[in-house]
Amino acid sequence: xxxxxxxxxxxxxxxxxxxxxxxxxxxxxxxxxxxxxxxxxxxxxxxxxxxxxxxxxxxxxxxxxxxxxxxxxxxxxxxxxxxxxxxxxxxxxxxxxxxxxxxxxxxxxxxxxxxxxxxxxxxxxxxxxxxxxxxxxxxxxxxxxxxxxxxxxxxxxxxxxxxxxxxxxxxxxxxxxxxxxxxxxxxxxxxxxxxxxxxxxxxxxxxxxxxxxxxxxxxxxxxxxxxxxxxxxxxxxxxxxxxxxxxxxxxxxxxxxxxxxxxxxxxxxxxxxxxxxxxxxxxxxxxxxxxxxxxxxxxxxxxxxxxxxxxxxxxxxxxxxxxxxxxxxxxxxxxxxxxxxxxxxxxxxxxxxxxx
Length: 356
Description:
This protein has 356 residues and is an alpha+beta fold. The chain has 2 domains: 4-229, Rossmann fold (3-Layer(aba) Sandwich), CATH 3.40.50; 238-355, CATH 2.40.50.100. It has 9 helices and 22 strands. It has helices at 39-47, 95-104, 114-120, 136-148, 166-183, 194-200, 218-221, 225-229, 329-334; strands spanning 4-11, 17-24, 28-32, 54-59, 62-66, 71-72, 80-83, 154-158, 187-191, 203-208, 211-216, 238-242, 244-248, 251-256, 259-263, 274-278, 283-286, 297-309, 312-318, 322-327, 342-347, 353-355. The strands form 5 sheets. A 6-stranded mixed sheet has the order 7-8-9-3-10-11, with helices on both faces. Helix 2 (95-104) packs parallel to helix 4. The longest helix is centred in the middle third of the chain and has 18 residues, at 166-183.
């Protein structure tokens, strides 16, 4: 049986229609797509804040909504925790009060202990503060802790990083990874950031105009032309997991399999896992290794996919993990880039960014 089954239709004033169907079997999944595609409406239908005009929502063996049988459980009976983009903490309660409220309204016996939530999310020094005295990242951590302490069977996150700057996004992503690893709560999160999907999700549902247009592992589902051009004119975001990072003399080296990336000297993370982020335009392709260049990163890989998008071609290269390179159609033809072709990828160290 699936963790979650969803099939709902709802027409909104103005003509937009949500008509989406999916079944989730993976513990961490993402709803990905451009603004206005129906992602948040889907979460609201699962949580019970939107009553669809027709459809079925089933969480495990429990029916949350079945329009044919006139079943509609209110939000407080669904055992679903939801973290909204704007946090929605109780302003008159301290952090400790917000967390205690969640404990008092726990609907399941799931063993999530308050002390451990405070420890994992590093909330101990914030317990006596009110929401108005918290930063955006701190409020997000409190909202996540409050949702966890209700003992949810499913955790829903509505663009949890949208209002944060790059440094805070990286930190909150690390907290989310700790939560997923610690409590193994099935999680569905909404985003239009490819980096967030590639870093956190096991499965991605791509939404467009109220419908699911693709589903699968991130590398597969995000390889369609539409996701490649959404949100970022530079195309897909590359995010490689570094298996280890070490300092040797006056430089830092990160490893993906047996291949080494020379990194900026300052880029030595103090936490793990670490990820290497760069854009497709930062990579130059060659069919053979090239000597006599200042570019230090020469990585051998194999072409596994080509996706033409307008006057560009995005080339997926497998070096043990897959990343994307942008070339012109003329360059793709001249280099005879086809699936299976062996290539050398050239990346300058200063174009690489390590995130944790």
